[in-house]
Amino acid sequence: MEVLTAISKVGIYVIFGVTLLGAMMAVTLRNIFHAALSLALTLIGVAAVFFVLRAEFLGAVQILLYVGGIMILVIFTVMLTTRIGDRTIPTSNHQQWPVLIGALLLLLYFVRMIGKTPWSIKSELAVVSAVQIGKSLVSTFIFPFELTAVILVAILIGTVILAKSDEGEEKS
Amino acid sequence: MDQLFVHIDQAIIHWAQAVLPDWMAVIVAMKIPIVAIAIFGPVTMMYLTLIERKLLARIQNRFGPNRVGKFGLLQPLADGVKMLTKEDIVPEKADKIAHLLAPILIVIPALLVFAVLPFGRNMIAVDLNIGVLFFLAMSGTTTLFIFTAAWASHNKFSLLGGMRSVAQMISYEIPFVLSVVPVLVVVGSFSTVAIVEAQPGLHWFVFTPWGAVGFFIFFICAVAEVNRTPFDLPEAESELVAGFHTEYSGMKFALFYMAEFMNVFTVSALVATVFLGGWQGPILPSWVWFLLKTYTLILIMMWFRGTFPRLRADQLMGFAWKFLLELTFVNIIVAAIWYEMRSPLNHLTAAAILIVTIIVLFQFNKTEIPKKRIYKYAYAD
């Protein structure tokens, strides 16, 4: 059985590595479409990490929303850029150093928070079913849940207004 | 007969435990369903192409392939050899990496979704507790790879096909996912096994009012999701040469075809599982029932292809956003009402609400036909 444990450990580290590699490529590649594809790879990698940690619901939702939904929108936007034929559109800009400082501060904060949090260590992974997630969403976490709904409605109304005002200008 | 394949699986595991060391036996036990699916998927695809060609030929009063083997039964093998030996042409301006990756990656989700299909009693590769969600998530990623193929080809026809595919899939994904929700509400689980077990004997969900409506929405969206006629705008031959796979030849083209036909099978199988009771049914073994229902749905899809003309792009969008989406929302509420009320009354209430909704939606979606003009002064009377 030790062989199996070793194999699964190697597998997990491969998933971690591929996810990080995808994230690196998403910000460094010069071809904007390749960058979008690497972002998709990263998101799939995160979903795989969820699956490994037995958070299947989160993993499936991650793929459904991010890969199936948001990635398609990202690619749609790439399609609408004017110089789609050009192979090298630089994705970097002139704010690399401030961003690096900000990212490092964020990393420091995350490390501190992870160190502070009392993690419960169990020998068996607790499997949380979708039913439990749903129940806690509409009871304990009802406020953030409703807040998200309000934000989404606001976004919808905003897009409708944007689309409407365009129409009005055309007519006048 | 019912547990035939389960017994074979058990026998192989027993043999492995006796002969091999422990850890290898575990791997063997894991590999059996994987190997079974990896063989079953492509073989199904090969013969689906033959069935489709034969059936379309019959619809069009022809014979179809009948030269290679009896009834053309060896035709798929001959096609396979032809595809493998064909020259692999990559356009000069194409994005080489993406052009290579797209056909390979598109097969992966098509094969993965086989894992959560219950082929019969105890015949499922993995009984994930989020089975249906896993299926929907995996089949949703296909769009990404279709678009990669379209973009990598650096060809206007491919790009147009890819754009159409993305627009269509985004629109139909929403009613596709939401039309399963009534079933999840009633069953209370994402697991495909639990959904099948909630429809014992002939109590299939399609026989309830919300089930019938859900079945129609789900099946129509399924046809749209796998890009088949009448929703085959991404590869419309008469407008776009071949759409997103214009620049693919040989085995790469075959891989697109393989993904498409495996998707046809899996999506039909999911429709059968969710609304037609999966492997439930009297007398015959469970897996026979499952295959019977799945192939019936596949044949209906092929029948569509033989009879329906292609939709126009605006009709396609309008149908998804103005008709199917509203009906799915109403259907979810109706399923909840049906679940809460007592037996004879709930069917009537649900059916009444749904019929009223459908009539109202039809009224709103009526195409405006301008009144016939009468030219008073045009004719000399």
Automatic annotation (TrEMBL), chain A:
Keywords: Cell membrane, Membrane, NAD, Quinone, Transmembrane, Transmembrane helix
Membrane topology: Multi-pass membrane protein
Transmembrane intervals: 6-29, 36-57, 63-85, 97-115, 141-163
Subcellular location: Cell membrane
Superkingdom per UniProt: Bacteria
MF terms (GO), sorted A to Z: NADH dehydrogenase (ubiquinone) activity; quinone binding
Lyase recorded as keyword: no
Catalytic activity: a quinone + NADH + 5 H(+)(in) = a quinol + NAD(+) + 4 H(+)(out)
GO cellular component: plasma membrane
EC number: 7.1.1.-
Xref: InterPro entries: NADH_UbQ/plastoQ_OxRdtase_su6, Nuo/plastoQ_OxRdtase_6_NuoJ
The family this protein is said to belong to: Belongs to the complex I subunit 6 family.
Function of the protein: NDH-1 shuttles electrons from NADH, via FMN and iron-sulfur (Fe-S) centers, to quinones in the respiratory chain. Couples the redox reaction to proton translocation (for every two electrons transferred, four hydrogen ions are translocated across the cytoplasmic membrane), and thus conserves the redox energy in a proton gradient.
Name assigned to this protein: NADH-quinone oxidoreductase subunit J
Automatic annotation (TrEMBL), chain B:
Residue stretches spanning the membrane: 23-48, 100-120, 132-153, 174-196, 202-224, 261-280, 286-304, 316-339, 345-364
Domain of life: Bacteria
Molecular functions per Gene Ontology: NADH dehydrogenase activity; oxidoreductase activity, acting on NAD(P)H, quinone or similar compound as acceptor; quinone binding
InterPro entries, per database record: NADH_UbQ_OxRdtase_su1/FPO (IPR001694), NADH_UbQ_OxRdtase_su1_CS (IPR018086)
Keyword terms of this UniProt record: Cell membrane, Membrane, NAD, Quinone, Translocase, Transmembrane, Transmembrane helix, Ubiquinone
Catalytic activity field: a quinone + NADH + 5 H(+)(in) = a quinol + NAD(+) + 4 H(+)(out)
UniProt keyword annotation of Membrane present: yes
Any single Gene Ontology cellular-component annotation: plasma membrane
Span of the signal peptide: none
Subcellular location: Cell membrane; Membrane
Membrane-topology descriptor: Multi-pass membrane protein
UniProt-recorded name of the protein: NADH-quinone oxidoreductase subunit H
Organism: Candidatus Abzuiibacterium crystallinum
